[in-house]
């Protein structure tokens, strides 16, 4: 059983919801009361993973003569193990702010991993994004990190990561699973929006001239409403590429990983910003593009979510479903909730990346999963 640690309550002025968030954002950027109305620019510079996690590691999974390398971030030395699985297109860094808040209040261990095809993970067949393959990846990484008998495990997943967590728990791929937490992943609503996913992906910018601009876009577009989280999370979503002069829309030739995703504690920010904003004398120029093209994974989308509600209900462990709205429940989950088959909490209004927008709201319900008999 995890024990709570005493700590001061924290608040993040960037965590606000609905129309208030947009209004507040415009106010902050257009009017600075401390400087008598003079406009002040918000800081969109990236922040290192080491501000939130204790350790970064590459876990090698051997298969014959080949190997897959999974990037993981860890914190904590005692207590149950929270295995954190991010959503499609995101990375383990999306759990950074949540991890710092959780480990400061609860005695636990955290393992956040970059899923296949995402973040800094390097695998053969990176385009195999089936739930079967990715759930096996999770089991392999946990086994390689903690041995055949790992600590008691709570699987926590957001969106696609939630579906993978359900498959890992339902398939008994991991020993000693103590609980399951699915964040804003419901079969019914997920299947309804799949038809519009391609349009959503096409509507995003193809590239950014710097990490700072990627972070700024993520906040202003509402993809991540918490600026603190965006500053660490977006580094795992984009990577530096080189493009020929005059062709900034179609980045090619990814640059070596040493700047943005190597083992250095931080990236070379002076190089990032100066290179991106320099004159045409630097050829080719640098831009930042998405690490994964989710549009090419369309054949897996249906398999991520179809049947997930019943599989979630059948998992024989304490379960928690965290939702951004009660209207997202489908019929199977509605009946299961009425029968008391799982705990549910509806979160305050927030965006899609709910664990990034309001990380403090997750601490008590996830702790409740660990303590449920």
Automatic annotation (TrEMBL):
Looking at the record's lineage, which domain of life comes first?
Eukaryota
> What GO molecular-function term can you cite, just one?
protein methylesterase activity
AB hydrolase-1 domain: residues covered: 82-362
Q: List the catalysed reactions.
A: [phosphatase 2A protein]-C-terminal L-leucine methyl ester + H2O = [phosphatase 2A protein]-C-terminal L-leucine + methanol + H(+)
Q: What is its EC number?
A: 3.1.1.-
The alphabetical list of record keywords is: Hydrolase, Serine esterase
Assembly notes: Binds PPP2CA and PPP2CB.
Q: What does this protein do?
A: Demethylates proteins that have been reversibly carboxymethylated. Demethylates PPP2CB (in vitro) and PPP2CA. Binding to PPP2CA displaces the manganese ion and inactivates the enzyme.
Q: Which family does the UniProt entry place this protein in?
A: Belongs to the AB hydrolase superfamily.
Protein name, please? Protein phosphatase methylesterase 1
């Amino acid at each position: 059983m995890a024990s709570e640690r005493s700590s001061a309550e924290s608040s993040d002025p960037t965590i606000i919801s609905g129309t208030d968030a947009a209004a507040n954002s415009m106010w902050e950027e257009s009017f600075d009361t401390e400087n008598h109305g003079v406009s002040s620019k918000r800081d969109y510079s990236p922040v290192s993973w080491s501000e939130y996690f204790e350790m970064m590691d590459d876990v090698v999974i051997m298969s014959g003569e080949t190997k897959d390398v999974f990037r993981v971030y860890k914190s904590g030395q005692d207590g149950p193990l929270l295995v954190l699985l991010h959503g499609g297109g995101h990375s383990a860094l999306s759990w950074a702010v949540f991890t710092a808040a959780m480990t400061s209040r609860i005695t636990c261990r955290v393992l956040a991993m970059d899923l296949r095809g995402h973040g800094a993970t390097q695998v053969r067949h990176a385009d195999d994004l089936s739930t079967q393959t990715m759930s096996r990846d999770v089991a392999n990484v946990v086994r390689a990190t903690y041995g055949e008998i790992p600590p008691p495990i709570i699987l926590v997943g957001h969106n696609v990561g939630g579906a993978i967590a359900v498959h890992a728990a339902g398939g008994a791929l991991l020993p000693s699973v103590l609980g399951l937490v699915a964040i804003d992943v419901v079969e019914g609503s997920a299947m309804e929006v799949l038809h519009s996913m391609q349009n959503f992906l096409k509507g995003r910018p193809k590239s950014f001239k710097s990490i700072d601009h990627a972070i700024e876009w993520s906040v202003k577009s509402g993809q991540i409403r918490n600026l603190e989280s965006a500053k660490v999370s977006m580094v795992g979503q984009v990577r530096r590429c080189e493009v020929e002069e005059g062709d900034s829309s179609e980045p090619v030739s990814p640059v070596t990983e040493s700047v943005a995703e190597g083992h250095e504690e931080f990236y070379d920010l002076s190089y990032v910003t100066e290179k991106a904003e320099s004159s045409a004398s630097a050829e080719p120029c640098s831009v930042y593009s998405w690490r994964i093209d989710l549009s090419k994974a369309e054949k897996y989308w249906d398999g991520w979510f179809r049947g997930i509600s019943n599989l979630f209900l059948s998992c024989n462990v304490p379960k928690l479903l965290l939702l951004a709205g009660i209207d997202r429940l489908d019929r199977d989950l509605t009946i299961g909730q009425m029968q008391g088959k799982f705990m549910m909490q509806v979160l305050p209004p927030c965006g899609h990346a709910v664990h990034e927008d309001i990380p403090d709201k997750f601490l008590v319900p996830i702790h409740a999963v660990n303590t449920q008999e």
